[in-house]
UniProtKB/TrEMBL annotation:
Primary location recorded for the protein, binned into one broad class: membrane
A cellular-component GO term for this protein: heterotrimeric G-protein complex
Species assigned in the record: Adineta ricciae (Rotifer)
One Gene Ontology molecular-function label: G-protein beta-subunit binding
Function: Guanine nucleotide-binding proteins (G proteins) are involved as a modulator or transducer in various transmembrane signaling systems. The beta and gamma chains are required for the GTPase activity, for replacement of GDP by GTP, and for G protein-effector interaction.
Lineage: Eukaryota, Metazoa, Spiralia, Gnathifera, Rotifera
SUPFAM superfamilies assigned to the protein according to its UniProt record, in alphabetical order: Transducin (heterotrimeric G protein), gamma chain
Short name of one Pfam family: G-gamma
UniProt name for this protein: Guanine nucleotide-binding protein subunit gamma
Amino acid sequence: MYNTHLLYFNKRERSMAGVERLERIVAELRNEAKVQRINVSVACQDLVKYCQDHELKDVLVSGFEHRANEFESKRKLCIMI
């Protein structure tokens, strides 16, 4: 059960490729272990505070001013049935 790109290598080369893959995995796990963790409750409080601080700038919360709505259709639509 080898990867297709490893089929044509000899046993030693396959072994070295496996070792390199495992070394990359270990390096990634070490990097992830260094990440500073915070409690979910603290992260939620920060997110709520950010949303409240930027509430007035968010057009999805405060809405568009009628004259400033750049997404409004410029022409009238006429449908005949």
